[in-house]
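Comment thread on ticket #2218

A.B. wrote:
> Attaching the input chain for the structure job we discussed in standup.
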Amino acid sequence: MAKRIVLIEDEDVIARMIKKHLIRKGYEVEVAEDGQKGLEAILEKKPDLVLLDMMLPVLNGFGVLRALKEKQLLPELPVVIISNSGQPLEIDHAFDLGIKDYLVKVNFTPEEVLEKVEGILHGDGDKKNGRKKSAKVEVGIVLVVEDDETLLSILARKFKKEGYAVRTATTTSEARRSLQQKGKPDVVLLDVLLPDESGLAFLQECKQKEEFKDIPFIVISNLGQDEEVKKGMDMGAEDYIIKANVLPEEIVQKVQSIIRSK
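C.D. wrote:
> Ran it. Output below, let me know if you need it in another format.
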């Protein structure tokens, strides 16, 4: 019997694209264009999973989540947020209400929504949290130095889901203090444009210190000019990632690969 999904999304183009991909995979999809209709569809159709936008007419996403919580449908009913809003406080609040995952629209494609759905509904291992269990032999400590709080929150959450201990810093001063903590990070993700000092200057400083020179640094930046990339690599970066060219999941995969190869 086909799994049933309720998709609550008021942007018609996005709704049609996601629905098309889901139907091709054999899912039964009910689309609602506002939160109230979506809530009614959930209660009537009793879906196996809900895809929920947050900015909705009539009843917003949080209104839908609170109603589901009151009816004791969460966290048993898998809900995946798909939203333009990526504010850390909103993300944390949504997880507190019992959602399974939170996808920021600018960071995913319909194919990745499908992959997320497949992982939750058909994945092996721990289906309750919507991802596969794995033998996390590569798990370690990751320090993320990034002043974009949205990206910082997304990366921290994704690394934590994979079992990593995550430290965060929004300035190089905070990053220095973090490096002095017990247990050196296995990898440092380092933005270039930071409030107090250039990330590349901080990278150069760390590579000149005996206790930090062997830590792999991955530069993550919006500066993608060839000279900037070359400068970062010449200073000792393990890799230089252009933010606009990758998804957060790909950054996690890069870190996993580096830690496994150590």
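A.B. wrote:
> Thanks. Noting for the ticket: Strands lie at 4-8, 28-32, 49-52, 79-83, 101-104, 141-145, 165-169, 187-191, 217-221, 239-242.
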